[in-house]
């Protein structure tokens, strides 16, 4: 879907958080991240070489990736001017912004003239099928959360990284805009038409080698009133063999829903398992991933130990500890005799 | 959304089943069903007056409703000719066909010239919000099924009819194309963008009188791998006070999924309740609706009695017995002291 490698556009990012897409690409796909492009007043820095468009082309870059959120929903003239230069120099442009590149006439015109692509990763470009529910070869692991934004993408990416380092066959499967920009392809599930949600995930995770693991990026939560349907379509379309429970322990309420408490990890485990067994009776919950960013080290470790005892599953913060133990648990699934 | 009353277009229906949309309108909204329009070789008959377009206009008809499925996915020239006449005479045209009216240039041109509407009810026309999960006044009942096409729409329509006959405040809320054509409005949920599914159902079922019941048309099944996400969005967006379990007892496997068995009614009850309680902890399963069309009378009655004993809930086939007992159970919810 996206041609690699990338020049990461940081624009005039107000702060590092505004450039979190660029940070994700740089963290998880350093081999795609050839350089960065910053405007004056940019308060983010990926530590990459600052390259002009021309320098980026010389270094083999194929796509300018918009790695920054725009302020006030407007793509500024200054940004557009850089994008026009990039198209003129032969680059594609990829963006996950709400405001679409394709809605800017000067970019459309230049892209057509140069034969380049404007890729708005929020918008599906494939006519996905209706899910067929058929069993398929290959293993799949899905991260499910007590809430939105609790670390599901991070967990799957960290597991993929660990598996690759160990020479194991694995592929991170992106289901959201940031994941798509990081890996260069995926399904923007929240923008898919209802009837085709599960089918889009079957399409994303096709039959594979028997010892290959797809690490599917989770979305939403079964317990989030706004997005739960997306989550269930992901569970049934993804037909996981393994579920990882993801949680952020300091959150007061469901994201964006002040009157909703988070479920316990046990509730999430039981509900997700019941629903996942509809398509794969052998599915198991194999681990717990906790985002302990808001905790000190000793508090975090104590909390993880408590979860590990309570749920009788490996409980880790992949940011602090890596995802090795979550991967170990997947591999044990492959060796039923060892259990 | 649709202007009433209707002229029901039966076209050259191959058999009565091909005209099931027209049958639904005639059965549930006889007051909208002024007449029928049939071509030669039509093998369906609603028992309504056969009217020309001109006669229909004289009788006050506002919309020609396409009440028949087209063969081979093609809207024939013969159909188009009738539709053109209808637009010329000042009627709107409403259709739930896969092939869209709006894709036929001669119809678009005539509709614009005459200031009439071409209404393809499969396509959403509203920008639905993201669900907010807020509690709202009024009561809501949702039919959930062990599978697709087990009688959920019929059950909700039969309950609405019974409540209206008893002078109770109620509204059937359509979530699919047939329901929308019958009632003149609703949400084509299977065509809504994933992120807005639950929000579209909140939009469909707004705050209402405290003693008003929305009877929400169910879609899909939590146990159907292709469509379960749609069902869960309906449960969370609809925030039901009461759930009716719907089932067709002679089905071998999930519709379109030969390798999937249907869940038991107990499994459906437990899973649907767990998920519905996320948004409304007070929700109850109040009844069971069984489609016994494939059974003889004594077999059907014995099966219903068995379900009633097993689930300790009123179990009826609303087609054979009416929906009165399902409505009685809703009213008992309103009077907690009587329990």
- Beta-sheet strand percentage of chain A? 15-25%
Going across the major beta sheet of chain A, what is the strand order? 7-8-6-9-10-11
The quaternary structure here is homodimer
Amount of helix of chain A: 25-40%
- Biggest protein-protein interface? A-B, 41 and 41 residues
Radius of gyration of chain A: 20 Å
Find the structural class of chain A using helix and strand composition: alpha/beta
Termini of chain A, distance in Å? 41 Å
Note down, in words, how this protein is organized.
2 copies of one chain form a homodimer. The first copy, chain A, has 339 residues and is an alpha/beta fold. Chain A has 12 helices and 11 strands. The first copy, chain A, has helices at 20-28, 53-58, 77-88, 105-114, 152-165, 177-183, 197-204, 228-238, 265-276, 297-311, 318-321, 324-334; strands spanning 6-11, 33-38, 63-66, 92-95, 118-120, 139-145, 170-173, 213-216, 242-247, 284-290, 315-316. Chain A has a 6-stranded parallel sheet, with helices on both faces. In chain A, strands 2-1-3-4-5 form a 5-stranded parallel sheet, sandwiched between helices. In chain A, helix 1 (20-28) crosses helix 6 (177-183), helix 3 (77-88) runs parallel beside helix 4 (105-114) and helix 7 (197-204) packs across helix 8. The longest helix of chain A has 15 residues, at 297-311. The first copy, chain A, is globular and about 55 Å long. The two termini of chain A are 41 Å apart. Chain A binds chain B through residues 130-135, 189-195, 197-199, 222-223, 225-234, 236-237, 239, 254, 257, 259-260, 263, 271, 274-275, 278-279, and chain B through 130-135, 189-195, 197-199, 222-223, 225-234, 236-237, 239, 254, 257, 259-260, 263, 271, 274-275, 278-279.
């Amino acid at each position: 879907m996206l041609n690699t490698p990338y020049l990461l556009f940081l624009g005039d990012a107000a702060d590092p958080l505004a450039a979190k897409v660029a940070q994700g690409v740089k963290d998880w796909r350093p081999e795609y991240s050839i350089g960065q492009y910053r405007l004056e007043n940019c308060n983010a820095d990926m530590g990459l070489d600052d390259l002009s468009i021309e320098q980026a082309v010389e270094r083999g870059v194929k796509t300018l990736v918009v790695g920054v959120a725009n302020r006030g929903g407007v793509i500024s003239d200054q940004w557009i001017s850089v994008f026009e230069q990039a198209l003129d120099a032969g680059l594609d442009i990829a963006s996950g912004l709400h405001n679409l590149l394709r809605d800017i006439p000067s970019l459309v015109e230049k892209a057509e003239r140069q034969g380049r692509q404007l890729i708005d990763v929020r918008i599906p470009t494939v006519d996905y099928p209706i899910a067929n529910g058929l069993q398929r070869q290959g293993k799949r692991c899905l991260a499910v959360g007590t809430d939105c934004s609790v670390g599901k993408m991070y967990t799957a990416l960290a597991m993929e990284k660990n598996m690759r380092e160990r020479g194991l066959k694995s592929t991170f499967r992106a289901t959201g805009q940031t994941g798509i920009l990081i890996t260069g392809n995926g399904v923007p599930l929240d923008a898919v038409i209802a009837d085709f949600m599960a089918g889009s995930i079957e399409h994303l995770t096709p039959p594979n080698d028997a010892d290959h693991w797809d690490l599917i990026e989770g979305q939403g939560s079964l317990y989030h009133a706004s997005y739960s349907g997306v989550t269930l379509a992901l569970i049934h379309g993804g037909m996981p063999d393994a579920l990882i429970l993801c949680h952020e322990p300091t959150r007061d309420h469901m994201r964006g829903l002040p009157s909703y408490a988070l479920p316990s990890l046990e509730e999430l485990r039981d509900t997700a398992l019941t629903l996942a067994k509809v398509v794969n009776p052998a599915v198991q919950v194999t681990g717990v991933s906790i985002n302990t960013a808001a905790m000190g080290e000793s508090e975090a470790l104590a909390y993880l130990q408590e979860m590990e005892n309570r749920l009788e599953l490996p409980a880790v913060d992949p940011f602090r500890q890596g995802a090795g133990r979550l991967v170990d648990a997947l591999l044990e699934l492959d060796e039923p005799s060892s259990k």
